[in-house]
Amino acid sequence: MKYSCSVEINLSIDKTVELWENETNFKEWQDGFKSIEHLSGIPNSKGAKSKIIYQGEQKIELLETIILSDLPNKKIALYEHIHMTNTQTTRFKVIEKNKTEYISEVEYTKFNGFMIKLMAKLFPSKFKGQSQKWMNQFKEFAEKTGN
């Protein structure tokens, strides 16, 4: 399963990327975000590994591995979970001096388990909807914080 989402943010590209990369901000726009623990490498650099924990109805633990870090042009990260594996490519593009496009391309490469496979097959829009929701929440947070 593969999809992309985007949102326009009324901030400069530099300020947008700065807010997006700052892990202390994750709780402001990612529902359920609890913590990130760096396991190896230099944070936000190629090869870095981190454990990310979300707590909603269930606890979700992800292993993040940075594949490429060249922001604002592109950042690619691999996310591994007991039930799924995906890559996310994030890009930021200048639209105008104080307007930035935030683009996310997500590709799920593995689903483990009958229920998650069924969910992905029957309700792929749920996955894209969650990504778009977080992007919209980031836009709201960034515009409020960055101006």
List keywords for this structure.
147 residues; alpha+beta; Alpha-D-Glucose-1,6-Bisphosphate, Chain A, domain 4; 4 helices
Protein topology:
Elements: E1 2-9, H1 13-21, H2 26-29, E2 33-40, E3 49-55, E4 59-70, E5 74-80, E6 84-96, E7 99-111, H3 114-122, H4 124-146
Antiparallel strand pairs: 1-7, 2-3, 3-4, 4-5, 5-6, 6-7
Protein name: SRPBCC family protein
What report would you give on this structure?
This protein is an alpha+beta fold and 147 residues long. The protein has a single domain (2-31, 68-146), classed as 2-Layer Sandwich (Alpha-D-Glucose-1,6-Bisphosphate, Chain A, domain 4), CATH 3.30.530. It is 31% helix and 46% strand. It has four helices and seven strands; from the N terminus they run βααββββββαα. The protein has helices spanning 13-21, 26-29, 114-122, 124-146, and strands spanning 2-9, 33-40, 49-55, 59-70, 74-80, 84-96, 99-111. The chain has a seven-stranded antiparallel sheet with strand order 1-7-6-5-4-3-2. It is globular. The mean pLDDT is 94. It comes from Flavivirga jejuensis. This is SRPBCC family protein.
